[in-house]
Queue: 4 jobs
Job 1
Amino acid sequence: MAVIEGGASAALTDVGANTKAARIEIRPTDVGSLGSYSMATLSGTMAAGLGAGSTIYSIRWGDATRAMLLRRLSMVARNAGTAFAAGVFNFELVVARSFTASDTGGTNLTPTGNSQKRRTSFGTTLITDIRTSSTATLTAGTRTLDVQTHNLIRGMVPATAVNYPFVGKGVGNLPGASINAFSLDWQDLFSTDVSNEWPLVFVQNEGCIIRATVPATGTWEFGVLVEWSEVPTTAGFN
């Protein structure tokens, strides 16, 4: 059996005699004195007639010496009682660069204190701004959006039927069913598949938005789940 000695710690790594494979322990990203966080939120009832490509969720990172690693951004949505005109919908994840002034309006979700930590001893998040629409579009701050989306969720909704899910994974009833109770799992706009896959890395004045295009007349509500870590810019993601 061969051994490998660590250059910094002098610790030995065993390699199996038969398989010659190193014995590796998979661990979370080393966040040092920073931390890892998650948060799920719901909007209010979105008013009918939302303009095409409206910003409904926004994340801005403004710290100059640390980075934000977006691990997951997922959503659900449902009709909220007033029927849509039949048509298609889009929910798009778009990265924002040169994001020097936060979006405004809606509900500010930026955590404080111990809120949203995955471990109490983590530092309070350094995120600059997270916000969601309450009933209408957010007002854009100063930012330059990527020309193309990083991901999107696209589908169709019917006319007449109400109170049904249209974004999400799980158990649901078809529009027009006599029983409209349902339960949905989150549908990912972004999620890393394996431990060594790159997350979305945001450095100073970067971030992302979710923008929505839905058919006319309908009222609806949505939820967003976000998971992220914060690391020094020297932590291998620079």
Note: The chain is about 0% helix and 45% strand.
Job 2
Amino acid sequence: MQILYLRENRWMKLFLLLIIPIVTSGCAMIRSDTAQLSLPAVDFEARTLDNPRLKEFIESNLQREIAPWPPASWDRTMLTLAALYYHPDLDAARARWAEAKAAVATASRRPNPIADSRYQYVSNPEPGKSPSIIDSSLLFPIEALGKRRNRIAQAEHLSEAARLTIERTAWQVRSRVLSSLISLHEAMQSEALLRRQAALQEENDALIERRLASGEFSPLEATKGRISLGESRLALSQGQKQLADARTQLASALCVPATALEDITISFDFPGNQASDLCRRDLQRRALRGRPDIMAALAEYEASQSALALELAARFPDIQLGPGFEWDQGSDKWGISASLPLPVFDWNQGPVAESRARLEEAVARFTALQAQVIGEIDQALSAYTAARREIEAAGGLLGEQERQLTFLQAMTRPGEVQRVALFNARQQRNAAALSRLTAYVKVQRARAQLEDAVQEPLTPSEAPLPAPEVNPRRLGGH
């Protein structure tokens, strides 16, 4: 009996030695993995455009050295690169891609073997036999019909869709920078014209006051002049506010504080009117073959196909196969264990139907996105064509007003009447310049809208900026 007790005790110790370390190590891993991560402190106000790491990032993308640093003038490309360097939207897109890549690793893993142990105590053992029965087995799950392959394919397609989100986000950042630059250019030019308008109105008001004092003008006419002067000053004040708002909008697009733009010079290198021979069919082809959201929708469709194949394969159960050992009241017994779920009550009809519906939804989303892109191109192309006609008309009107002003300046003789006519001509020329500026801004916005519809530059010489798939600020950068 003592020998049997020792053998039984030996098997119990072996059982405990196998189970206890696994349980305790699992608890330790859970405690370490669930430790809260501290949020990084970002000093937003410390962000500047003279950051040395920003210089390295811009130079690596432009493939040329920038000297001196910071540059004397910031063009649209350098400002866009600054936005790509700082913007947190790209950080979020990169984090989603990292999560999707981790999902590929999760889908690639093979199921762990299953250790099954059971202890039984016999209350009335036969004389000379141990009362203990220890039964253990090690089962290896075997996935059938390419389930792992389909699972990996689904995760890879979703990972590609997440990567394309980085490209789409980078284009959105670029689009916001361009829109802010157009607004800033409009505000600066408009403020200058409104300032000139106010100066002309002040000069005219002084003339009216002199003529009022000499009795040539009535008080009613003088009041009208003062009202016009007040309106001009009000318009100038509104233009100055628009300029301040435009600077703030650009700083927000760059994701830097507004103080970072105080001491820099910006060159507004907008493209000219050379994109007059745009082909609608060519724009559609470029958009449907190259837009990141189109490619992402296609990747999601492929993922839905893999998910359906996975659910179809799940109709056939996996097998669990492995060796087993039983210590039965002192007798050692070895064997082979196998288990197989029986698809009696369910044949995986529900998940298969859900996957089919998701696949049809992916097809519908892709088709709807294609129609939306075509509609965006048509709308943007129509707006661009109309804007180009408008700027031609506004330019012609401005030319006529300038010729009239030149004629009046050459023909004006000393006298107050001629000065009034000259003032009116200058006012009309200034109003025509404002109309020309409005038309120019419409052209630039329509062109930007058309580029957003295609999501690539219209000019072949202007290559799209690459989307940084790795955080360029690295650890510790602002």
Note: Strands lie at 114-121, 132-142, 319-328, 331-339.
Job 3
Amino acid sequence: MPAHPIDFQIQAGFYSTSELTNIFDEKTRIARWLQIEATLAEVQGELGIIPKAAADEIVKKACIENLDISEVAREYEQSRNSLIPVIKALKGICNEGYCEYIHYGITTQDVLDTAQILEQKDALAVIYRDIKKLEKLLINMARHHRDTPMIGRTHGQQALPMTFGLKVSIWVAEIRRHIERLISLGPRLFTIQLSGAVGTMAALGPQALTVATLCAEKLGLSSRVPNWHTSRDTIAEAASIYGILCSTFEKIASEIIQLSKTEIGELSESAPDKAQSSSTMPHKKNPVISQRIAVLSRHARALVPVVTDSMIHEHERDARALWSEWLAMPQIAIYTGTGLHYLISVLENLEISPEGMLKNLYSQKDLVVSEWLLFRLAKKIGKTHAQKKLQALIKLVGGGGKIFKDILLQDQDIGPYIAQEDLEYLEKPERYCGLAAEIVDDTLSEVEAKQQQDPEVL
């Protein structure tokens, strides 16, 4: 029975997607091992390293459907090796002694490492597809809300007017950098491992480099020397990129959570019609999916140090490091891809309240353009004096029902310098959004130009 939430069948899809779990499915993984063994035999047969008939037999039989999976499972009860039970099962169904040429000249880690790269390639293809979708979604949102005014917040408090489009354009720029990271990662990560017990390729014979190159081509990978049995930097890089992706996903989800608070009411998750987010409070509309994104992100990031620590190997192979890495990477990929899947779902149905944003912007109204006044008055009385004067006058507003504009006009030092233009900013703080709209335009133009260079798939 499934014991990990990733594999739950009744609560399916809470912390994974079927597409991602299928990539890392146990039988799919064994099928990849067999694919690698078949590819190796095929290339060796073409080069005359093993008999062509043996290669044909191995290629024909190296399918998981041909194996007795129950027998393989029983063998694993006795075996201490990750691959031997599968190799033994394959040997048992190959005819005429051809089984002697299975797994010819390589080591277990070669197969498991290469299979890990193949599954990560599949996972990254899904993540790349979806993050491109996320980018497009955010671009449209930023453009639509280019001029939607809202209050910007720093240190958890109202700061200055801005636009919702500017907030989203910052997300767009960050997602674009992630896309570029994913694109650049592929050539380093998608590399075959085929170098034998200690990386000398000795058992593969004089044509070892050719064997590795041809196998890599057939598997859609590249080949490089020296081996990376103990050089796990690209795996750690992949894990780290997953981690920073998740940080962005959580940041966006957390912003949605914050802005959906009852007292703020600027954003809200849109739940399905029959969805019930609270078991006892019918009025609640909890940001459940955004919270789930945060949880997935935290678990993915927590596993990244396991992979970076696994870069530290002893000698030419260290199972402690390898097994730690092999255990962590599928979880990190699944959590990352699932968080991304959820984020797209939330943003596609996000309820955005320009009215709520304007209401909050007006809650302090004239006070939130104090920066505007500061720099206007600085030209007349100096910035330091203006700063102290405005701070003192703002204190007079608090809780006393006094209007900031009236206090300013009545002040003997400042009143004479308050122009009609200044009063208009006090009445309409949304006018003080600086270059927000232009920044949105420039950001989106730059990102859309870069999109033209993106590959269709990774």
Note: Residues 108-144 form the longest helix (37 residues).
Job 4
Amino acid sequence: MGRYRPPSPPKSKHITAAGAARLRAELKQLWEVKRPQVTRAVAEAAAQGDRSENAEYIYGKKQLREIDRRVRYLTKRLDELVVVDRMPDDQSRVFFGAWVRLEDEAGDEAIYRIVGADEYDMDAHYISLDSPLARALLGKREGEEIEVQLPKGSRRFVIVEVGYAPLG
């Protein structure tokens, strides 16, 4: 079996203003704080002599590569993102940035927010615009029923509430 992996499908280019600010803050922290610290540590480890058996040097170089890879990704990604910072005209329908309260067949409720691929976070109930659930929700209104194909099978949900501010 080879190492080839097919390229992942392109991510959506939309992001909320808060998500873009978080990515910019991460880039700034990596570039202005973390990278200089690691660079100093690598320079100090290199000054100790033999680099081939110097664990601090080897680990520091690995950290620098990881930081540089993330900085390149963030720089490129921030250039191509489209910040969505205004409400849609029809706020009764589900669009990007919407908070949605769903009820499943068992009567259990869950609240999700549709966000960009770079800011999804299941702990905060943020789902990616590219996810099957978000794609099924887009354009729908309160009271509508959706069916979503999930890895564990098909599930039905009823849209209980749609809003563009956090739902309580």
Note: Helices lie at 17-46, 55-80, 132-137.
